[in-house]
Design brief:
The first copy, chain A, is of the alpha/beta class. Chain A has 2 domains: 12-139 and 313-439, nicotinate phosphoribosyltransferase (Alpha-Beta Barrel); 197-298, Aldolase class I (TIM Barrel), CATH 3.20.20.70. Helix content of chain A is 38%, strand content 20%. A 7-stranded antiparallel β-sheet of chain A has the order 13-12-1-5-3-17-18. In chain A, a hairpin with a 2-residue loop joins β17 (387-391) and β18. In chain A, α1 packs antiparallel against α5 and α9 (209-220) packs across α10 (233-244). The first copy, chain A, starts with 11 loop residues before the first helix and ends with a strand. Chains A and B meet through α1, α3, α5, α6 and α7 of A and α1, α3, α5, α6 and α7 of B. Chains A, B: It is an enzyme of class 6 (ligase). Chains A, B: Its EC number is 6.3.4.21. Chains A, B: Belongs to the NAPRTase family.
């Protein structure tokens, strides 16, 4: 997998457009494409950027092997000339954008891709796939982490989404504020904390619940978490403490009225002397359920379906639009489409966030010609939101791998704390700060 | 990718349960696990099975290489004994279930996995990931294909979901009734029809819309589809026919009031003599939009976001439950958990569909001991819904690859036609036939 090229994870028209523009010469025109969303999911106050590190990983692998080229040729998708061009393809352009863990709003230019039309076009589908899904998960995770109010949230959603999406979701969840994942491939690829308890089948395959608990403790030690709702929870808790003693690590409850059950189980554990035994709950949790469990004696949450499906917003409506391109005379020219309800703002963008009393009060998107933008001076205290990820094909490896994910995890907490507190509300409403677009 | 093993696309607890049961011997108990959903997404009348062929592909690749084993060992997830067991792991059990393209309902046993506890446990997460996502997409696709009422639907959603999910979605869309996909990797892996037009950036990178159209026709021929809504649609259509002549293949509209625009464009094309030029529309379509476009002169649909996110139901809530296992005395024993609202029915299941006047009237799920099920005789005319996919580790290759997908595509149309016509309604309601579970 580490070597698999994402070059064909692409809509066919990217290749046919490349082919046509190589014929007429426009493939070589320098271009600036931008990724943004026109709106947040309904009622959401902010979004969280995730996936950029995965984009950089994918870029490293993005080349076409003989089999890919043969497919494009056999299907007649591109001409022989284009096959030659593709043989040595490597992205040689530059990419900047919002860092992972950064907040985004409508029209925030979360990624900016600069290069020739040909090379930028080939990346469109892949970049959007990664950002649309990863940002959806990170944005949901962030709301959940906020609602959990300091209690650790763990990703257990792999089974409820595509098997590769599961890996991306685990990573995005950590960017969005989660502590770990049940998904082993994600743990391996990204060095994430792996967590797990046991399933009901583990209890059922044994002749008794006691046998199952004894077996789990023999294998994993007393610090393990036992699943106690296969039959009768009260009996299971009693058996669990009998088997493990009061050093039992934890119990998991996966059904029923979680608040009431956590309270009963806590009292029972305490009465049995297992005062340090933790309680994990799972069962179709989302940010609203987590908020409602704040007063229940729960120690950690396992979140599945609603995390990996973006809690009602499984994609982000990010689009990839040409903002500026070289003209026939060699000068860069802002361009825009005029499609009804989908018109774009011409010109490359700068992006800043301004603050009042240490709280963000506006997202500033500044569009203009290269010369105008070069001369633009932001006001004092504005945060420049764009960082450089790729410089003429050179990837900045600081934004890849485990450390980048943990840095993004920390950054998201800080950036969220700098938004007005309404951002942490689960009430539906407008984005917590406005986006002001200025055309110079 | 073709060689990448999905063995770690798995929740950690599958491996720790394996480890514990290898220690105590229960890993070798023969088991029957079943996959089903307790309910369809709210208001849905039926679901469509998809993903089984992908499961068979994944099973062929499911083994642990040295790097996987080192990870499990270094992280202390399993013991040395388990590492040895995993070194030569190949699934040697049997799998049966609903064929791809078959309709499913609450409690339909869409997949049944039989083998030792150890080997069946390792597959849980992967099987659920595949079925939960692929069935969600196929079920949405089926509603869209029905609403399109014979007009071809094409998958253009890859950019709105995870990049690998996009490949699975393209395949599931075809199972669910779609004709093709924009996704090249899906087209390559599964031999699907690849389709494409052009993006707005293609028009914008050229000095004029006319230049762009000339370029596209030079490269792709007059039978191509030109995107006509970058600036002014009426002008674009006039230019398109001027450039290509009345043999122009098609035009695409991606914004605005699609019905009204299609009507205007159809009249304009006809007036220009381009009576065979087709009209494709795209722009956040779903089954409701398609139904509302029935009277508009549209020839084909490109569907994106709503397809790959299951049109409001991005996952299927499929679960994997132990139904029967070998006891200490070697006999197979039905088992079930009693968790509140999540109790299961003990025993392996048979599944049949009964018909009245050639229309399905009931899904029959029959549970019991091996002996009882062996003696069970369905009534005359009941369709046996379970087919054999894997027999003691031997995969039936008829359910893999391109031909299986096209067979599923055809099967889905036939199976849907055998349901009461309410299944084709977009009105929210109950599953179109009831599921009756009988415990022998």
């Amino acid at each position: 997998m580490a070597e698999f090229s994402p070059a064909l994870m692409t809509d066919m028209y990217e290749y046919t457009m490349l082919d046509a523009t190589l014929r007429d010469g426009t493939a070589n025109r320098r271009c600036v494409f931008e990724i943004f969303t026109r709106h947040l999911p309904e009622g959401r106050r902010y979004g969280v950027v995730a996936g950029t590190g995965r984009i950089l990983d994918a870029l490293e692998r993005f080349h076409l092997d003989d089999e890919d080229l043969r497919f494009l040729s056999d299907r007649g998708i591109v001409s022989r000339q284009t096959i030659s061009w593709l043989e040595n393809f490597r992205f040689s352009g530059s990419i900047r954008g919002y860092r992972e863990g950064e907040m985004f709003f409508p029209n925030s230019p979360v990624l900016q891709v600069e290069g020739t039309f040909g090379e930028c076009t080939l990346l469109e589908t892949l970049l959007l796939s990664v950002l649309n899904y990863d940002c959806a998960v990170a944005s949901a995770a962030s709301r959940m982490a906020t609602a959990a109010n300091g209690r650790p949230c763990m990703d257990m959603g792999g089974r409820r989404t595509n098997e590769w999406a599961a890996v991306a979701a685990a990573r995005a969840a950590v960017v969005g504020g989660f502590q770990g994942t049940a998904n082993l491939l994600a743990a391996k690829m990204y060095g994430l904390k792996a967590i797990g308890t046991a399933a009901h089948c583990f209890t059922l395959v044994h002749d008794s619940e006691r046998d199952a608990f004894v077996s789990q403790i023999d294998a994993l030690g007393k610090n393990t978490t036992l699943l106690v709702d296969t039959y009768n929870i009260e009996e299971a808790v009693r058996t669990a403490v009998e088997v493990a003693g009061p050093e039992l690590g934890g119990v998991r409850i996966d059904s029923g009225d979680l608040a009431a059950l956590a309270q009963r189980v806590r009292n029972q554990l305490d009465a049995l002397g297992a005062t340090n035994t933790t309680i994990t709950v799972t069962n179709d949790l989302d940010e609203y359920a987590l908020a409602s469990l704040q007063t229940a004696p729960v120690d950690s949450y396992g979140v599945g379906t609603r995390l990996v499906t973006g809690s009602g917003a499984p994609t982000c409506a990010m689009v990839y639009k040409l903002a500026e391109r070289e003209g026939a005379d060699g000068t860069m020219t802002p361009v825009a489409k005029k499609s009804k309800d989908k018109a774009t703002v011409p010109g490359r963008k700068l992006a800043f966030r301004s603050y009042e009393y240490n709280l963000a009060d506006c997202e500033h998107v500044i569009a203009g010609s290269e010369a105008d933008l070069a001369a633009f001076r932001p006001e004092e205290g504005w945060k420049d939101l764009l960082v450089d990820f790729v410089d003429h094909g050179e990837i900045d490896s600081r934004y890849q791998g485990h450390d980048a994910i943990m840095a993004a995890h920390d950054y998201r907490a800080k950036a969220l704390a700098e938004l007005p507190i309404t951002a942490q509300s689960l009430m539906r409403g407008e984005p917590v700060i406005p986006t002001e677009t200025t055309v110079l």
